[in-house]
Predict the structure.
Amino acid sequence: MNASQPPRSDVVDVVEVRDLVVRYGAATALDNVSLRVAPGEMVALVGPNGAGKSTLVNTLTGILTPASGSVEVRARIAQVPEGRQMFGDLTVDDNLRLGAWQLRGRGESRRKQRDTSWVYELLPDLVRVRDRKAGGMSGGQQQMVAVGRALMSRPEVLVIDELSLGLAPLIVADLAEHLTELNREQGTAVVLIEQNARLALDLCSRAYVLEAGRIAAEGDSADLAASPDIARAYLGEAQALPAPPDAQDDPGPHDPGPRDRAMADPAPTPGTAGTARGNQDTAVQAARAATREAK
Amino acid sequence: MSDFLVYLITGLGTGCGIALIGSGLVLIHRVTRVVNFAQGTFAVVGALTAISLLDTGLPHGLSEVLGVAVAAVVGLLVGVIAIGRRGTSPQAALMVTLGLGILAYAVEVMLWGDQGRSSEGLSGAVTVFGARIQTHYLLIIGVTAAVFAALAGLFGRTDAGKALSACSSNPYAARVVGISVTRMGLIAFAIGGALGGLAGVLLAPMNSMAFDSDVALIINGFAAAVVGSMHHIGRTLAGALFLGVAEAMVAGYGSATYQTVVALGLVLALMIGQAARTHSVVAEAG
């Protein structure tokens, strides 16, 4: 399913983050994070709740300011924020048109900038609801609107924060297909931030594992997915693998893995977040082991 | 019958002035979630500026336009102080607008003194079904109709209007798509200032304006805005017209002493009915 092309060494990265530190007051949310995204590449960023994924997204798109380090975005970037974040009082069509807001004054005619027809071609399910208020639509439809709204700014890099959050597996699969098509046909680079690591690793060619504000592992998605430690910590495959040396770190038969929880839960719950944080030590160890393996 | 028509038209004229104040409150609240207690001040500043300019010999029309423009600038300044600093909560901004409204008293007394002043409105009268109506009331109604049509066009048809609504609907998402929420808030304050100023210059020939006239204006405007749930400009207009007509009827058939009390009592009853209806809808949904 890895649709995107592997990065070429002679191509300038569209996103380059070096030694990024972001703080909320005294708390450090991101600590020396570095990552890169090549043109047309699909990159996954996985990790539990509270790892700093959304902070990283908001820093990439300029909503948050880094305390130190550098963020270079060399292409037009757009964001699909966590939780869809609709303009609930406005129609689907209005939501899409506002996606082109940042293109104002950039040469092209306003009429062309406001043209939503190509987005409806890409996401045809939205055509019949275009005049409905976005606030009253289902989660899946809202996520499509959020993706379409981001596409309206004609981005070369699309950052998607929790594509699958609160959505049924079939809808997630449909959205994933649309993303793959977008990446393949328009060459749009995608940065996919996900708790559902299985989905992210399947969809993207490269991945970063973020733990407690640090990059704990990085590499080809296939290699990371093949790592027993990553599989145990993120893919819910503890039962299929030999028991780890420290039995206390094992999530156990009654504790579904993050992926299973993501697929089963209709929406994030405090319990999910708490459990994810509870698995943090295990995940950190797994990520570190994977990094050692990669080296 | 002719008395009733006179009270109705004059009530609608007063209601239009209230609607302009109320729509300014709604517009600012809709974009910034701030209840702007300086809204009445904009009307006073607009009216007194226009009167001063008329006194210097400037013609009608130009003086009123400049009065509205000054009120818009004052609105922008209030906005800069109230929401210009990133992260200011709507509650803190509300207190800032209240403080600025009081500070404005001192400035207004220094500039224009503490006595009420009024301007000469559109002269003449027309006879409608035997009722003699001052032309100025018809001017107020016409201008207000045009302004509300423009506001409906702004919010219903333009990207700028949609962006203003987006800031209120979801400020975070607005930032995500590249809309500057602060800039939009300042635009809302400037438009709110202009709407307040317009109310002031239109009402000045009917009611003399003094530094403390803002209290009556904001009370009526706020009542109308609450009828519009601080969000719907059309319902705010309806509430304001009801309020204006009710006040005119009470003053005409009863006593002018009780006009505000009775009218506000009616609005209060309307609000209680509205709240009960909302409560029952929520209970049904639950």
Remarks:
- The mean pLDDT of chain B is 91.
- The two ends of chain B are 49 Å apart (CA to CA).
